[in-house]
Specification:
This protein has 422 residues and is α+β, with helices and mostly antiparallel strands. The chain folds into four domains: 2-93, Rossmann fold; 125-180, 2-Layer Sandwich (Dna Ligase, domain 1), CATH 3.30.1490; 191-318, D-amino Acid Aminotransferase, Chain A, domain 1 (2-Layer Sandwich); 327-421, Glycinamide Ribonucleotide Synthetase, Chain A, domain 4 (Alpha-Beta Complex), CATH 3.90.600. It is built from 14 helices and 23 strands. Strands 10, 11, 14, 15, 16, 17, 19, 22 and 23 form a nine-stranded antiparallel beta sheet that branches. It has a five-stranded parallel beta sheet with strand order 3-2-1-4-5, with helices on both faces. Strand 7 and strand 8 (153-156) form a beta hairpin. Helix 7 (126-136) runs antiparallel to helix 8. It starts with a strand and ends with a helix. It binds adenosine-5'-diphosphate and magnesium ion.
């Protein structure tokens, strides 16, 4: 099969790496890709939002399957455009991607079918949102409705902070059109976990669980980021809990979306809070988590490519995946200053030394090759990933990999996995 992966981050490097291990993959392409990906795939400089450019490229390269990484491409209708040309694609249509691209749609859907999620209201008027916040009191959560690259949610400790979040979204238009509507919801308390299911529009197959670390610094301090590290599996997600999530959350959502005429195909990523009353939905995403998938894929024993094909074509009901009985961890190395302000262009040495440690794989998230120098080119730059019989072993190996990398301008959290390691 000729496979095209869309995206340029650590997630897409992990996807390409995993697909490259498949005996069924004859040629792998990636747009736009990155220098790490380029070792396994032919890369072409086409933007992830250039729908026409990607479709033309897929036709020209006679691609059998397109795997779409970023939510922005899905929300822009890339899968619809590919399918219109008869190209098989892994990922939801634009309409189905609304489960992520409109938090209001997702909340209404859950409320209508009785899927547990925090009590909420939707607002298109900032004064009304503020009045509701005063009535409810703090803590309270304010969310921009649309895609805001992980910056659109404020868990407010005070009424003033919540109202400021409404003003930022609706009056200052900090997130553009994505903040024209907000969801205000109750604050849930518990442990957070990500649960992934492959879906073919009709059936859902549990894929894996993971836990990520959103804050920039140790001890869950500092600003929110795209994710500073992850491990898989997440011990809170027991087999019983996974079954419960599948039957009471994922399958009902899938059934409802199919009934609405927007069947969900691809990966449904449920962000859950394990509360006193059981799991409740924080949000749904319509794509693999970054960096969760970097931690998950090394654990997969089965060939990944057939799973992607079957999810895209239908037939998951009769499909199964096998996993290695190991733990995995990925630690993100970011440029100092991320997520606020940072500079590109610092040189990174030692990536191949880290990669040479048995059990360690370095995924590139934001790098650029200049001559024979590897330069940082982005906030999140590398994802140092390791597998081991226990999470402690995976942790120790991942940090050995980090130690092998010589990059004074970079930083990482030193406590990835702390909840599970204690
Ligand atoms: N209702 C809630 N109660 C407590 N924390 C929440 C709630 N909603 C969101 N959060 C926190 O905010 C983070 C981001 O919210 P989320 O809905 O996942 O938005 P996004 O990932 O699009 O930024 C979550 O990972 C969680 O830590
Ligand atoms: Mg989230």
């Amino acid at each position: 099969m000729r496979v095209l992966v869309v995206g340029s981050g650590g997630r897409e490097h992990a996807l390409v790496w995993s697909i490259a291990a498949s005996p069924l993959a004859t040629e792998i392409f990636c747009v736009p890709g990155n220098p790490g990906i380029a070792e396994d795939a032919e890369c072409a400089p086409i933007d992830v939002l250039d729908i026409e450019g990607i479709v033309d490229y897929a036709l020209k390269q006679r691609i059998d399957l397109v795997v779409v990484g970023p939510e922005a491409s899905l929300a822009a209708g890339l899968v619809d455009a590919l399918e219109a040309e008869g190209i098989l694609a892994f990922g939801p249509s634009k309409a189905a991607a609304e489960i992520e691209s409109s938090k209001g749609y997702m909340k209404d859907l859950c409320a209508r079918i009785g899927v547990p999620t925090a009590a909420y209201q939707r607002f298109t008027d900032a004064d009304k949102a503020a009045a509701y916040i005063r009535e409810q009191g703090a803590p309270i959560v304010v969310k921009a409705d649309g895609l805001a690259a992980g910056k659109g949610v404020v868990v407010a400790e005070s009424v003033d902070e919540a109202i400021a979040a409404v003003d930022a979204a609706m009056r200052d238009e900090s997130f553009g059109a994505a903040g024209a509507e907000v969801v205000v919801e109750a604050c849930l308390v518990g442990e957070e976990v990500s649960f992934f299911a492959l879906c073919d529009g009709e059936h859902a197959m549990p894929f894996a669980s993971a836990q990520d670390h959103k804050r920039a610094f140790d001890g869950d301090k500092g600003p929110n980021t795209g994710g500073m590290g992850a491990y898989s599996p997440a011990p809170v997600m027991t087999d019983e809990m996974a079954e419960h999530v599948l039957t009471t959350i994922v399958q009902p959502v899938l059934d409802a979306m199919r009934a609405e005429g927007r069947p969900f195909k691809g990966v449904l990523f449920a962000g859950l809070m394990i509360t006193e009353n059981g799991p409740e939905v924080i949000e749904f995403n319509c794509r693999f988590g970054d960096p969760e998938i970097q931690a998950i894929l090394p654990r997969l024993r089965s060939d990944f490519l057939p799973a992607l094909v079957v999810a895209a074509e239908g037939g998951l009901k009769h499909f199964d995946l096998r996993w290695r009985d190991v733990s995995s961890m990925t630690v993100v190395m970011a440029t100092k200053g991320y997520p606020v302000k940072y500079e590109n262009g610092s040189e990174i040495r030692g990536i191949s030394d880290a990669d040479a440690i048995p059990g360690v794989t370095v995924f590139h998230a934001g790098t650029k090759l200049e001559g024979d120098k590897m330069l940082a080119h982005g906030g999140r730059v590398l994802c140092v990933t390791a597998m081991g019989d226990t999470l402690q072993i995976a942790h120790d190996l991942a940090y050995q990999g980090i130690d092998a990398i010589d990059w004074p301008e970079g930083f990482c959290r030193t406590d990835i996995g702390w909840r599970a390691l204690d």
